[in-house]
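Q: Hi! First time doing this. I have a protein sequence and I read that you can turn it into a structure. Is that right? Here it is:
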Amino acid sequence: MAEKQHIHTLFLQRCRNDANSTTLANTLEKDIQTVFNSPEKFIMELLQNADDAGYDGKPVDVRFRFYDGYLAFSHNGKHFDEYDIEAICDNAQQKLNDKKRNLNKTGFKGIGFKSVFVIADCTYIISNNYSFRFDRAYPEWNVNASNTDTYNDGNPLGRYPWQIIPIWTEPCDIPKILEFNPDDVNFLFRLRLNNDVIAYALNLLRNTPRTMLFLRNIYNILIDNHGCVTTISLRRNANSNHHDIYINNMLTSSWYVMGYNITIPKITSNQLQAMGSQECPEKLKNASSIDIKFAYNINLYDKLYPMENATLFCYLPTSVNCGLPFLVNADFLLSADRMQLLPNVWNNFLFQSIGKLHIISLAELAVIPNYQLDVLSVFVRSLQPYTQQQFINAYDNGITAEMQNTPFIPTNTDHLRLLRYGEAIADSTGFFKAFPGIDPALENRLACYELNSIDKLQHQFNLYELATIVEKYSSKSTSVQFQCKLLTFLMERYVGPDSLARASIGNIQHCLSGKRILLAANYKLISSDCAYFPSHKHNQIYPKFLNIEAIHPKLLQIDGLPTWLKMLGVKELTDINLILEIENVVKKRVEGFKAQLSIEIVTLLCNIDTSLISEDSVLSYLPLITKGNELIAAKYCYLPSSLGPEVDIENIIDDDVGIVAEKYCILNRAEKLKKTLLDIGVQQKLALYLRVPFCEIDHDKIDYFQEYYQYLISTKQEEFIAVNQANIAYVPLMRYLSKESYAEYFFCQLMQHENALIENLKKFENLFVSDEHSDNSNNTTSYMAFMLSYTRCILAEDGKLYKMSELCSPALRKRLGRRFASLLPQMKCELGQSVIKLSPELMHLLGARDTLSVKDAVKLLQIAAKDNTPKQQKYYKRIYLAMIKSRYNSDDEKQLRSHNVLLLASDNSLQHFNSLYFICDDNCDVTNSEKLIKSLPGLTTEAMMVICRYFKIRKIRRTDLQVTYKNLQTNEGLKKDIVNLFKLTASIEEECEHDKLDTESEWLNSLAKIDFIAVKRLSLVYGLRPDICFETRVMLRDQQLLYDRDCPRFKRRLLEILVNRFDMSIEATTLLFELASMNTEADRLDWLIENGYDISKLGNGLVDKLGNRASSAKKRKSNYNNTTGGCDNNVFTHSTPLRSDVSCATAAMITKRRIQMELDASLESTFSKTFVIELKDEQSSFNLDSKDCQLNDLIKRKTVLSLNHHNDISFKFQGNNLLSNKSGSITGGSNKINLRNHALSASKVTNGKSNLSINSKHAQDDSVDSTAVNDRRCGIDKTFIVDYDIGKKLVFNYLQQYYRKKYPTCTYEESNFGFILKGVDKHNKILSLKVVNCNVDVDGDNLVDIEIIKNDDKRVVKVKSTNRNEDTVIRVSKNDWKCMRLYGDRYRLFCVYGIDQPDNARIKKVKNPASLLLADKLVPVEICFKL
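A: Yes, that's right. Below is the predicted 3D structure, encoded as structure tokens:
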């Protein structure tokens, strides 16, 4: 009874009910549930224990019997001994037992058997004389648990680790469920789980019989599930490596098992010693070698069959699948549940060994006839990526090293001769099978054709590989039979269903193009690039340089070969193919081209259809012989005169500029030669400007482009042009502009394409509107403007050559007048048979200067000083304006003052500029002083200040002047007489009733505010320097017109000051002085009648005085007495003859006026009928008085007036909510436009109707609101004053307040030009806002008044100001209209009303008025245009 005593002793040792017992019980229960979380794992643990129970090499049989909640497990292996009892009753084998030291035992951790407690709460073990159990429900546990003994803290006693406490059980007490063989080791489990879990575990074992493949001792397994018996048997062939698995005596799988013993390296053994006992058992630490087995699956045909889900084995299967197509068994170090591999050096070593042994095993299989063709099927170069990376690397290291040393691939010539992986070649094309012996060296490296999975080889001889050396094989023989066989093979492979290139013609051409594999008719091997099908059409002999060869006709007899050759690139011998061949010749021989070859090519082209040549063909670079015997690319050549070009360049320019030589004309027909040359790019005319992007420009075609490019580099603009791809205008053959014949042609071309050229140059100019803070200037010129000013090449009227920048622009000539313009260099207008007249805008864009140089200014001032006519003031005024516009810098001013220049003094004398002063006051005019510079009519104080700055004329403020006079007396009689003179002049001079009323009202209002005061003595004293005194006879000071009564002709002096104040025209001034020289109004009327004036225009008061005066009055004498008008107590009578220059000017004016009256009369008789257009409520109706008028088709439809170059538009606003981005309600009343005598007349709006009259005589004046006289000449009511400072300041202040309120967080800073806001807006976006107050030109109109630049987005503002109410008509000039259309949505029109009271002024705004006008949303009140 030693066995029973042994069990009782163990029971007493382990059933101590203390704190350690409780801790052990809890730990043991937790470990069992954690490690063995799958109920079926107990099967594997029982099989492992049974396999470890084998002894003396005897096979072990295993039985599983499952009945009525009990599972019985039995095996016929070694019975339990004392050590086995100690181990099974221990936790994790605390003592070193046999399993931990024996390599032939699988288990070593001592916890495997504990997995049965997952399924059972009571386990019976019967082995020899041992009979005991582990029982969870043992009654003693409950009794002891209820004991009143407690720990010190008062808690009840803990649990028992019942899984390791054996309880002796007599055999009679074991449930009699099943019978047990006393010779076997028997286990009986009382199940705690349902039957389905146990049935699932047993079925899993039955369905995976390969589980027992690597067990050492188990050969048979019996499974009895409630009477359903299944037997699994492993039968090992002692004489071979074959293993068969049977289920119920039926063969289910066969395996070829190969075992290898691997020596453990010393370094690996040392690393194992450092591991813990739970990770690595002592048996591995002490081992010098281990066994690794491979099991290859054999199918029914005795062939190797690759597996898909092959898991790794450590005698029993794990859950690790790394992609190997066979089973591997090794002593892997596993996790506690035996399912996963631990990441350590030992497993790395095993994977490296597996990689080596894999190649070795394949080499052994390759010599076995049944398996040698399948070695690549089970070959795996690398593990699957889902495997741990360290295992992948270890396997790769092992297999790579072994593949370089061990051959395992059968060859094609001898299956027993093996090749290494890196030297074997797979012939996937079958070429060497079809042509054996063609390349013996390569064939010795060919793998066996019958190998399965041959595509796993590294070197594949595919169609692309064949294409690289097919030329070599084709040259083996030039026999027709061999070539037919070769082409047939290639055709089948490259077009067949298994071809890599079958889906794409491009792939075939890529593979075989350029390969000499085609047999020509002369038995030469040629490539598809130069091969053609034989043709009957082109049977002539072509030049040798074409390299044209025909395919051998016998090759074309192969079925399908012609179609395949077309896919390969063989072409029909057509004109287009000949052109392509010629292009190839030109490409290859563009360097060192010979003249004879050029003649041969042109001759050949004349015999084919050259219309097939593309525009971008390389033939445009074909070198042609010119008449100077030079070779120049065709695109740079010109047709000779003999071929009748559109423009005869040869006749225009005598030099050789690329004229095609006559040699070509001798060999070819003229018509065909001309067409050929044109088709290859030879020019027959000169292109004026390029339409292609800058980066695509052929710079070799443009003269002096390198100089322009250097200019771009110096201005840092070359990258900017390239990025924006600007179109640039250019000058062809600019070096010949000095020749009059070519200059005539060139400038005629400019005139012909003027609009397109202007648009082209403007587009270029707009790209260079640079930011104010950038380094680039805003005056970057186009290529054309730069080149025309690069060299003196333009012929001027004086016969000399000038640069364009040295010539005067039309604007400057107009500003200077006809006389002075003729003194400056200007382009010659009459060239050959043509008259050249370029528009001012184009001349400006081409670089003509708009400024007056200092040298020319001095020259003109000297000429003006010598003029003694009444136009002298006019000449000085024009010169002053030109100088102001030129804006001289400090160096220019020094140069100007270095000359001896005489200027007009206020007494009309000429004085040196060093001796002159200037009074800086608009309200102080002085005459008859030789020390004061003369303020010319129309020039503001600001303009005169510029002239003073140029000449350093000393400026005096009026507050520094003291006026001295005696006996001050008011003279109302003189004032009345002068008022009548101005009234009479206004009535006669202005031809329009509207202009007369406006001019008369303006003059009389101004005169009414002036007091005429006679003094005894009049002078000015400079207060700061009393020694300076200005003697004067007449001056206007603060609306007081003071004059010295002793001054001769003082009345004329008074008129001179008034004329300057009113800015009268020369004609009106001359007429005024003529009338002032007469004594009475009757004499003045007689004079008017005699000189052909229409006095019916005079007011009723003046006409009544005429009475019944005879229709033909006496001719008055040419000299009149200078008489003063009724001065109180001061009546002077002084007779002075009228100056001859005044008489000449008057005579010229009279002649002009008579011619105009005769013309008006003739036109009135010719066009006696009129028609009226009325615009009402945006609709149009026509009242026709003329039967021949061609507006009948417009009666029934709405009229749209196109506003072009000469248009003036007037419109008015209705509504009070226009100070926003929304357009207000803008309409017009009923307007009436009368067309009479080619003139357009309309009138000021009165009660909703319009009668404003505009004469065609003044329709050309397009100046915009700069002066009152321009408005009167245009016939427009001056209700709005553009650029009025008050209105502009109001709008600027409004914008300042508006934006500061809108962006309160931004920093505000003022500058010379306006103000800047910088910061972040409410959307947290970076904001940069700049409002620029544009400067006003002295003698012109600004298109815009204010610029608003927000983050590089520019908007412009135009301001219109008036002191009237909001119903006032707004005038839009021609330039305004252009600007509106140019800027579009970026244009804002601000209208300021009531500027006479700035505090109560109103501002209205319209966005994009041009679009509103064109969309009929803004209806014009008046439309004025010139016919």
